[in-house]
User: Fold this.
Amino acid sequence: MRMNAVRMGTWGLVLSLFSCLLVRADDTPPAKPGPDALAAIASSLKWQTGPITIKDGLARLNLTDDFRYLDAENSRKVLHDIWGNPDDPGILGMIFPRDKGPLDHGSWAVTVSYEEQGYVKDDDADKINYDDMLKKMQQQAHDANPGREKAGYPSIEIVGWAAPPRYDKVTHKLYWAKDLKFGGDEGDTLNYDIRVLGRRGVLVLGAISSMNDFPGINQQIPSILSMVDFQAGNTYADFDPKVDKIAEYGLGALVAGGTIAAAAKLGLFGLLLKFAIAGYKFILIGLVAIGAYVKNMMNRFSGKSQTPDHLLPPRNDPP
Assistant:
């Protein structure tokens, strides 16, 4: 399915991402941990700061003092145990603001994963009409809504670009943000995406939050972009056409939907929507974000931070 969808081209890929494909898993939803159990899990998280090596030297995160990191094991505790999402072995880690924990009101995070689909050519960078792409994505999302609603899922409206796609030809980093509306939700959902192009694949970074958080997150994007890079030997410039595979899509496909695997990972923040609606364990494949439902879970906890002070990295504040 993955490769067939890639061969369909940019717009076929978008259609596949917004189609309503339901996979029946287990009728019995897992028991929901209570607040005390969630707080205990949060207290057990092992935070990292400073330089972080990703995937056996593939890439590196040079975290500033404003951020901290959870590795794959600890990210699973957040995504699966605390936020109630399905297991995803492809998640390499999560970047959090240093003053926010997974149970805090207004918390947000950036997931990090890697898709080894080949070297993505960027020769279409100046040829893409993103306004036209947006209109087609909006129409396809609209056309798929009756099927989603019939299956018991909320409709999805792509309101527009929260931040239009931009590509840095020097660093080979692509980033953009979408404003999404789910069903009758009062607030909109922010879906912020970053792709870092490398020799054999793409680093996939994704942040999902409320549109109300857009100004603060958008302000941090330059810092996040500057922190993540492939290591020597894996960079975009290290591509060797004699031995390396070339991806079957370009920058346009990354923005329109990316690879099927990448889209599935970015959907992990809400794939168990049926738990909240009807108590059945269905996974909706292809939705890029169901962030509003994550925010609903996280906003049950407000006020005092749920992350103990001793787990926070020390501030390097001047005396």
Summary: The chain has one domain: 2-311. The radius of gyration is 19 Å. The first helix runs from residue 2 to 7.
